[in-house]
Amino acid sequence: MPVTPDQQAEIDALRGEPKQTLRAVSEGMEAHLYKAAPVLDHGFVRVIDYMGDDAAICQAARVSYGKGTKSVSNDAGLIRYLMRHWHSTPFEMCEVKFHVKLPVFVARQWIRHRTANVNEYSARYSILDREFYIPRAEDLAAQSTVNNQGRGEALTGEEAARVLEYLKGDAARCYDHYEEMISDEGQQGLARELARMNLPANIYTQWYWKVDLHNLFHFLRLRADAHAQYEIRVYAEAICDMVKDWVPAAYGAFEDYRMGGANLSGRQLECIRKMLKGEEVTQESSGMSKGEWREFMGVIEG
Ligand SMILES: Cc1cc2nc3c(=O)[nH]c(=O)nc-3n(C[C@H](O)[C@H](O)[C@H](O)COP(=O)(O)OP(=O)(O)OC[C@H]3O[C@@H](n4cnc5c(N)ncnc54)[C@H](O)[C@@H]3O)c2cc1C
User: Fold this and answer.
1) Of the ranges 89-98, 119-128, 152-161, 243-252, which one carries the lowest mean pLDDT score?
2) Which of 24, 202, 255, 279 has the most neighbouring CB atoms within 10 Å?
3) Are strands 117-120 and 95-103 parallel, antiparallel or unpaired?
4) Which fold has domain 5-133+202-259?
5) pTM of this structure
6) Ligand 1: which of 144, 222, 235 to mutate, most ligand atoms within 8 Å of CB?
7) Domain boundaries, the chain
């Protein structure tokens, strides 16, 4: 269960007490505020706070005194211009703070994004819950044969059942030992900071994660991408749904130029120019490696 009934009651109480403010408010983000969007079997993402909206990006770009005189369509045009030309600082004027509950192995990938502020649940101080990520049957896949860093076909039959049993059984046994070791009934009880080393990487942790919109887009570009591991991608996708409602114009520009766009090298552009002139270009004549050629064809053929 992503949130307990008590936690849900706290969220409802927060949402039941709206406060008046003079600050910029994004109606789209207000609809998400505090709510937990479930991710994986026990995880979630929820927005705790945010600052700024599409207009704030334009205000910063124009260094204006108020809302300015420009229309919404002008704002959207300016935002697209900023995104297209990598003029990133106006996007840094917007910030967002999330509360995320995620498996430890996902957290290890996530924490590599250094341009954010993090505070994690302390397993030195608190006892971790008995909550482990157990993949759905369709997400239990074999090692990919074409990509060393990925998965291929779903496991089937007896192998799938055995793997699932291992995952569940190992997690349960490790947690039983964890509980036994920290218990002070009839024994001294091992310190929590030591007992936790027995827990597998699919146990859930939690953190508050605050980031500005520019660096959030960088995170989403990498982690909502098809090459990202499924278990972090689903978090990035849940965040995309929130950002889309928070700053629709900025998200639209991001979707178009970053998620939907592609970077081309000088060599690749030269190939496209030759192709447009009707010249034959092959992998051998292009000067690209087989892998780069495959990626290039993937970009231009869609
Ligand atoms: C598909 C995929 C596979 C990956 N595989 C591996 C792997 O096998 N092994 C592994 O170790 N990692 C791996 N990573 C992690 C990856 O190398 C990055 O660490 C991670 O994506 C964070 O990116 P970042 O540094 O750009 O982000 P951030 O840390 O948020 O930084 C954002 C930008 O700020 C700048 N910046 C931040 N800190 C510094 C600094 N100290 N010095 C200079 N510039 C800085 C850089 O321009 C950087 O791009 C993988 C990531 C992805 C998406």
Assistant:
1) 152-161
2) 202
3) unpaired
4) Gyrase A; domain 2 (3.30.1360)
5) 0.94
6) 222
7) 5-133+202-259, 137-200, 266-301
